[in-house]
Amino acid sequence: MKTVGIIGWRGMVGSVLLERFRQENDLEGVDVHFFSTSQAGQPGPDLGGGAPLLDANSADQLAQMDILISCQGGDYTKEIHPQLRASGWEGAWIDAASSLRMMPDSCVILDPVNRPLIDQALQDGIRDFIGGNCTVSLMLMALQGLFDAGYVQWVSSSTYQSASGAGARNMIELCKQFQDLGNAAAAQPAATALELDRSLQQRLQDPSFPQEAFGAPLAASLIPWIDRAMPGGQTREEWKGMAECNRIIGREENPVPVDGTCVRVGSMRCHAQAFTIKLTRNVLLDEAEALIRDANDWVELIPNEKEDTLQRLSPAAVSGGLTVPIGRLRSSLLEPNMLHAFSVGDQLLWGAAEPLRRMLLILLERI
Ligand code: HSE
User: Fold this and answer.
1) Among protein residues, the one whose CA lies closest to atom 6 of ligand 1
2) Cα(103) to centroid of ligand 1, in Å?
3) Substitution site in 110, 134, 174, 261 for ligand 1 pocket (most atoms within 8 Å of beta carbon)
4) pLDDT tens track of the chain, all 367 residues?
5) Which of 134, 245, 262, 270 is catalytic?
6) Edge-to-edge order in the sheet of strand 106-109
7) What is each CA distance from 332 to 232, 328, 336, in whole angstroms?
8) What is the end-to-end Cα distance of the chain in Å, rounded?
9) SS3 of 246, please?
10) How many CB atoms lie within 10 A of CB 366?
11) In 3D, which of 24, 21, 29 has the Cα closest to residue 45?
């Protein structure tokens, strides 16, 4: 029986991963061990039978595992992964963090889209399997049909990214911001819209407004900056769009240009994206629709109608589910062979935990 070690299972991505393992009963018959960076020796979660937590800072203990899954974050990966490999550990490392995504001997995993590349990587002896950036994975789940057909000349993606992408602390802060504004509104039950607007604006600009995590108000506002600055004016989140998309689809030598502006908005855990897609040729809308609809089991084409859009194409409709709806699909007025579309997906599922979970299953099937 193979041993599997899980690190970082208390954070947002780790918790959703464990929830998925429970729902699908994936760990039945698997010798699973839970690690902690701070509470080694204390009782672990029920999925591991409550066995004492192992020490996530001990390369010796980690090296006892055949497969390790880390949702602990990039700093942890940077510290522990080189130690483990230097010690001669040859197990499989599955990771949600970005640190190893661009390493030549890693494979970025999104199996509904790149299963042949994952199989090739396994054959080639690759042992580091890294989940992709959430917006990139969700874009590829939505647009796979067009990419697979070779119809995408370039994509501009403008994102509407949820608080969960920034972490648990940020989700809590967003709720505090909503609450703060709600209290200000509730204090003036008979106010006009303009009076309400004035008092909310006062709260948004007051230094006591909760914003330690985001550095700015998000509720009743937005933040058009995610991650750090890159040369050339992009943020790192925007840079990942092209770099990771082409790595996942195996087009690093002949990359499809992907660029756009990444924006944090006040949704809790679903990222959304507006796409402008330049096609390599004339594609009838019917054909584009069929390609998109049939590409994988999770993409859902939403008719470009108001009712369907309101009911089915929003974070409120999608949160907690695995479907990746794409709608508002239409030909563009800007240029021939150009489409517009809009997609939503749960950032914590397809954008983070689900590819890791499925990679574990792929590995368990093989060994
Ligand atoms: N970088 C993403 C975000 C998180 O900030 O929304 C998931 O990759």
Assistant:
1) 165
2) 19
3) 134
4) 899 999 999 999 999 999 999 999 999 999 999 999 999 999 999 998 999 999 999 999 999 999 999 999 999 999 999 999 999 999 999 999 999 999 999 999 999 999 999 999 999 999 999 999 999 999 999 999 999 999 999 999 999 999 999 999 999 999 999 999 999 999 999 999 999 999 999 999 999 999 999 999 999 999 999 999 999 999 999 999 999 999 999 999 999 999 999 999 999 999 999 999 999 999 999 999 999 999 999 999 999 999 999 999 999 999 999 999 999 999 999 999 999 999 999 999 999 999 999 999 999 998 6
5) 134
6) 54-55, 31-36, 3-7, 67-70, 92-95, 128-131, 106-109
7) 28, 11, 7
8) 9
9) helix
10) 10
11) 21
Question: In angstroms, rounded to a whole number, what is the distance separating the alpha carbons of residues 129 and 95?
Answer: 6
Contact 177, 210 (CB under 8 A): yes
Closest approach atom of ligand 1 to CA 237: 1
Which numbered atom of ligand 1 lies nearest the CA of 134?
Answer: 8
Give the C-alpha distances (Å, rounded to integers) separating 201 from 182, 210, 231, 275.
12, 14, 34, 31
Ligand 1 and 166: CB distance under 6 A? yes
Residue 132 in contact with residue 108, Cβ under 8 Å? yes
The answer, yes or no, to whether any atom of ligand 1 lies below 6 A from the CB of 355, is no
246 touches ligand 1 (CB under 6 Å): no
Pairwise CA distance, residues 60 & 184, whole Å: 54
Residue 169 token pair: 């602390």
Cα separation of 102 and 47, whole Å?
A: 32
Angle between helices 354-366 and 12-24 (to 10 degrees): 50
Biggest CA–CA distance in the chain, Å, is: 70
Ligand 1 pocket residue status of 134, Cβ below 6 Å: yes
User: Is 271 part of the annotated catalytic residue set?
Assistant: yes
- Which atom of ligand 1 is the closest one to the Cα of 135? 8
Please choose, from the candidates 62, 42, 241, 270, the residue with its C-alpha nearest in 3D space to the C-alpha of residue 158: 241
Alpha carbon distance 173, 254 (integer Å): 42
